[in-house]
Amino acid sequence: MIVIRFILVVLVFAMLAGCGGGSTLYHQQLVSLNKGMTTAQATQSLQRPPASVHRTTVDGVEYMFHRYYLNNGRFGDTYLLCFESEKLKYWGYVEEFRRYPDERINKALEAVLGEMRANKS
Amino acid sequence: MRIKIWFPILLLSLLVGGCASYIPLQRQQTAQITRGASQAQVDQALGNATVLLSHQFSANGQQYLAKHYDLQTGTRREMIPRCPSRRRGCMPAFIDMPIIDSYVVVFEANTNQVFAWGMVEELSRSPDDSVSSIMPALKDSYALARSKQ
Question: Which among B57, B1, B55, B48 is positioned nearest to B25, based on CA atoms?
Answer without folding.
Answer: B48
